[in-house]
Amino acid sequence: MIANVHDERSDLRLPDFFTEMIQRKWLGDKTKGGFYKKNVGRRPSPAEPGQEDERLALDWKTLEYRPRRKPKFAALDIAKNIEDTGARLRMLLGLEGSPQKADKAGEFLWSSLADLWTYSANRVPEISDSVVEIDRAMRLGFNWELGPFELWDAAGVEATVARMKKEGKPVAANVEKLLAAGKNPGTPTIRNQPPGAPTSTWQAEICNR
Predict the structure, then answer these.
(1) CA 87, chain centre distance (Å)
(2) Distance between CA atoms of residues 15 and 4, nearest Å
(3) What is the 3-state secondary structure (H, E, C) of 110-174?
(4) What ranges make up the beta strands (E) of 1-51?
(5) Is the pTM of this model over 0.85?
(6) How do the pLDDT tens digits run along the chain, 209 residues long?
(7) Using CA of residue 208, residue 86, residue 138, residue 7, what is the dihedral sign?
(8) Signed CA dihedral, 195, 199, 200, 204: sign only
(9) 167/111 Cα distance (integer angstroms)
(10) Less CB within 10 Å around the terminal CB: N or C of the chain?
C-alpha cells in the first residue's frame, strides 16, 4: 500500500511494533487479539458469579497486554466548558489564550488536523471542485460535526497556515493562492471566498488563475 502512495502521504511509514503485530497475526478480534484483547472471565453461576470479561490494551513499547487506563488531559477538561466550537478548537490548538504547555491532546490534534487540511486541500479539484461537497461527504460519511474545511475556518486559516510554515509543514498550493487572492479586503477563509468566487464554493478555476 505504501509503495503505491504518491502524494503528501508518501512519508507514511508503519512503526516497527505494527509490523511485529502483523507477523504475530495479532489482527483483531477474529485472531483473539490486536490493539485490544478480551480477557475472558469465568462463566458465571448462581453459586459463583465469576468475573466479567475485561478488555486489555496493548502496550506498544513492550507488546504486552495490560488493563486499560483512561488518560486524563487538562486541556480537554478545560475545553468541555467552552461551548463555541471555534473557540474550543483554537484553545486546544494553542491559538487562543494561554497555550497548554506539553499537552499531548493538543499536540495530537494539531498534528492530525494540519495533515488533514493539506491533504483535503490537495484533493481539489481531484475529487471535487467544491470544498462544500468534501465537507458534506465527511459529515455524512463519518458523522463529523464539521467537515475539514469548516474546521479550518473555525481554527483560523491565516493563523494555522503561519504555524504550519513555521514548523516546516507543507501547505497546499491552492490555499496559498486563496490567501494571496483574499488578503484585501477582509480576512480570507476557506469558505468565505475572495472577490469573484461563488458564495460558499471554492471553485478550481479560482485557484488556477
Answers:
(1) 17
(2) 18
(3) HHHHHHHHHHHHHCCCCCCCCHHHHHHHHHHHHCCCCCHHHHHHHHCHHHHHHHHHHCCCCCCHH
(4) 36-39
(5) no
(6) 556 655 666 566 788 999 999 999 999 988 989 999 987 654 454 555 555 667 899 999 999 999 988 888 888 888 889 999 889 999 999 887 555 556 888 999 999 999 999 999 998 888 888 888 999 999 999 999 999 999 999 999 999 999 999 999 999 998 988 888 764 333 455 665 444 444 433 444 444 44
(7) positive
(8) negative
(9) 11
(10) N
Residue type, 48: E
- The HSE-up count of residue 30 (CA atoms within 13 Å, CB side) is 2
Q: Which three cell numbers stand for residue 61?
A: 513499547
Give the span between the Cα atoms of 136 and 142, in whole angstroms.
10
Q: Which three cell numbers stand for residue 135?
A: 465537507
User: Rounded CA gap, 157 and 153, in Å?
Assistant: 6
When computed from its CA atoms, the radius of gyration of the chain, rounded to whole angstroms, is 22
Which amino acid makes up residue 32? K
